[in-house]
Amino acid sequence: MPSPFMVLGISGSLRAASLNTEILRAVAGLMSPDIRYEVYPGLDTLPHFNPDRADESIPAVTELRHRVRSAHGLLICSPEYARGVPGALKNALDWLVGGTEIVGKPVALLNASPHSTHAHAALIVTLETMSARIVRDASITLPLRGPLANAAAMLADLTVADALHAALAALVREMRKNGNPSA
Asked: Which residue in 35, 149, 161, 163 is a FRET match for 113, CA 20 to 30 A apart?
């Protein structure tokens, strides 16, 4: 029997009360049963990228590469810091540059603020340079306001839940274009 598709969520924020991580938690409430979904927990465990160490077996880097390789699609939700991509997220992407884990992989970019355009644009450039497939229909900015600061509130708000559901459906369509994953 074929194994289910796997989606990996990556939050670009290290904050414990991150709105970006809450968005990824809300996605879990919308995931269909035939899709496995997990949020990558190790962004803060990765060492600083050093090309001289790229071939070393570093457990945190090996784990990141394994999770990205195992995923059929990625959801990346990131804040913008100083008009750019947060350093921890860029560091994780740098560790993937020399490998093939992300090549051709469908990626959706979720954005929690309509004012965070620089990080979103920079992520597109970086990921396309790495040969990831940005799924434009799945890359959205959510209309989040103060009371929508947690996953339950996001799922209860029809505008947000519908937008997330549509983005997820677009990502899954892209993943299915390659056919059903085999066991």
From this structure: 35
Q: Which residue ranges in the chain fall short of pLDDT 70? A: 1-3, 179-183
CATH of the domain at 163: 3.40.50.360
Residue 2: predicted pLDDT:
54
Secondary-structure breakdown of the chain: helix, strand, coil percentages, each rounded to the nearest 5: 45, 15, 40
Residue 1 has what pLDDT?
45
User: Do residues 72 and 5 make contact, with C-beta atoms less than 8 angstroms apart?
Assistant: yes
Question: What number of other Cβ atoms are within 10 A of residue 128's Cβ?
Answer: 12
CA distance 10 to 76: 5
How many domains in the chain?
Answer: 1
Nearest to 95 by CA among 177, 40, 157, 153: 40
What CA–CA distance (Å, rounded) separates 181 from 175? 9
Query: What mean pLDDT is reported for the chain?
Result: 92
- Number of Cβ atoms within 10 Å of the Cβ of 120: 19
Domain that holds residue 67: 5-176
User: Is residue 181 in some structural domain?
Assistant: no
Q: What is the pTM of this model?
A: 0.93
Assess contact for 132 and 74: CB atoms under 8 A: yes
